Amino acid sequence: MKKTPAILLWTLPVVSGVLFVALWYGIKAGFDVSDWILPTPGEVAAAAWREHARLLRAAGNTMVGALAGFLLAGSLGFVTALVLGVSRSLRAGLYPWLLVLQMTPVIVLTPIIVLWAGPGLPGIITVTWLISYFPIVANMTQGLLSTDMNHVALFRMANASRLQEMLLLRVPSAMPYYLAGLRIAATLAPIGAIFGEYMVGNSAGGSGGLGFMVYVYNTKIMIPALFATALTSCLLGFIFVAAVSLLNWAVLHKWHDSYERDDH
Amino acid sequence: MGLTESIVQFDAVRKRYGSGPLVLDRTDLTVAPGDFITLIGPSGCGKSTMLKLVSGLNPASEGSLMVLGTTPKLARARQAFIFQDATLLPWHTAQGNTELPLRLRGVPGADRRAKAREMLALVGLDKVAGYYPRQLSGGMKMRVSIARALTLEPQLLLLDEPFGALDEMTRNRLNEELLTIRERSRFTAMFVTHSVSEAVFLSNRILVMAAYPGRFHAEVQVDFPYPRRADLREQAEFQAKVTEVSRLLHAVEDTGK
Predict the structure, then answer these.
(1) Whether A54 contacts chain B with CB within 8 A
(2) What is residue A115's three-state secondary structure?
(3) Residue A128 lies in a domain
(4) Radius of gyration (Cα) for chain A, nearest Å?
(5) What is the domain partition of chain B in residue ranges?
(6) Domain extent for A67
(7) How many domains does one find in chain A?
(8) Rounded Cα distance, B135 and B56, in Å
(9) CB-based contact B91 A156, cutoff 8 Å
């Protein structure tokens, strides 16, 4: 495959962005869509500017919930996968129940979560954790079981203990899987937090997050502000994914094939 | 020579996996100290299986197998396995990989670093000790693998087609290096290969095996004295030996059809 020149990698997204905005204006003008159905990009920008203090504060609040839920999912997911990776019978006994948890729509569980964890931050963190936990467990478990059989034989030949095999072989070789799980979780965590705020964070009063702002703007029919909230949420997601990509790079770039240069 | 002196002793050993067909039929073999034994034969002849039995990675189904005067598993600490691919841990440098067996045995950091350095120097890789496996060529990876196997100074080295994936020039050079190292480290070796000239160059005994079920077909003695040098390959006696083993191998492959 021919390589895309670097200049195009930067300009093409800009060009498509401009085209997208032009199309947006075109649809507005051509089909005479009223402002409260589809505001113009200019109105959205204006609303974002007008509301920026509230939106930033809300984004900060959402960040706290999303980050706490994400870290909880990341650490609990790691530990759960270790437990599942240790023995076949533990895996057989527990994995179906994890699937059950994953298959249950979070929206159904939300009232129960509010009942147990309480409204506000604890509920939001729980929802975030619930939504981003499973991909981490599934990926990491798969990673622990995908260890190269020759490497396992090498450790057996060296009379390595089960603990050594787990910590010095299975866990490091599962790192790419774990990080792939974290990457999925990074896109889910802000969604989970915003959803959580929308569902359970209403009673958090003045210090609501983006999900609460959705509720507020919707009630007040401030449609351009709703679009601006969507944009802010999107930025939050980017920050999460960028952070995990950085972590991914820090852990893997020295040795993993995914960071192999083409000219090697 | 008495029984206790043998490095490996197969007595009427048979191997099948589960209730599957026989992969290794009744096998008797005595490996003496200092032997360099090569197992050669078509796929399915059980040559790799024999190494797995000796290493204790798989148990024998029947018969008795003694390694270094004890059971294969108990002998593990005094033997090392070199696999078909280098099986280096990609997240460790050449140095880290060479240290691994010592680390697993709980050898303190300074000691194992020094030992690993010494072994890397032995295979000519001290300059790239800090490189990760993906930065090394196939031949260099295999050298690291050899260095790693030698850190524990094994009495018995099991090599399962270690040079099979390398080009012929690299393979020849590594054959020579392996013999040079053996002058110093004095291990007994069981070696599996598909290459006749490699087998003749390295070993003092070649066992030609037949398949389905795996069994010995013939044994060839190779009496060229050690140390052997690269120019041995150009001598007529060497060529004659290669021809002899090739013929036996062809006979085996023809009966297998």
Answers:
(1) no
(2) helix
(3) yes
(4) 23
(5) 17-88+155-255
(6) 38-251
(7) 1
(8) 33
(9) no
Strand partners, B180: none
**Dihedral sign computed on CA atoms, order A33, A34, A38, A42:** positive
- Indicate which of B48, B52, B87, B99 best probes the interface with A, i.e. most A CBs within 10 Å of its own CB: B87
Whether residue B72 contacts residue B161, with contact meaning beta carbons closer than 8 Å, is answered with no
Residues of A in contact with B85 (CB under 8 A): 150
What phi and psi values does residue A3 have, to the nearest 5 degrees?
Answer: -75, 140
Residue tagged 């893997």 (tokens): A252
For chain B, residues with pLDDT lower than 50 are 1-3
Lowest mean pLDDT: which of A112-121, A128-137, A203-212, B50-59?
A203-212
Please spell the DSSP secondary structure of chain B, one letter per residue: --GGG-SEEEEEEEEESTTS-EEEEEEEEEEPTT-EEEEE-STTSSHHHHHHHHHTSS--SEEEEEETTB-TTTTGGGEEEE-SS----TTS-HHHHHHHHHHHTT--HHHHHHHHHHHHHHTT-GGGTT--GGGS-HHHHHHHHHHHHHTT--SEEEEESTTTTS-HHHHHHHHHHHHHHHHHH--EEEEEES-HHHHHHH-SEEEEEETTTBEEEEEEE--PPSSP-GGGGGSHHHHHHHHHHHHHHHHHHHHT-
Closest CA in chain A for residue B130: A254
CATH class of the domain whose range is B17-88+155-255: alpha beta
Instruction: Tell me whether residues A153 and B83 touch, CB distance under 8 A.
Output: yes
Which residue type occupies A125?
Answer: I
The pLDDT tens digits for A166-201 are 999 999 999 999 999 999 999 999 999 999 888 876
| Contact state of B104 with A159 under an 8 Å Cβ cutoff | yes
The C-alpha atoms of residue A16 and residue A6 are separated, in whole angstroms, by 16
Distance CA A85, CA A180 (A): 17
Place of tokens 């920026």: A52
- pTM of the predicted protein model: 0.86
Mean pLDDT over residues A115-143, rounded?
91
| Predicted complex ipTM | 0.89
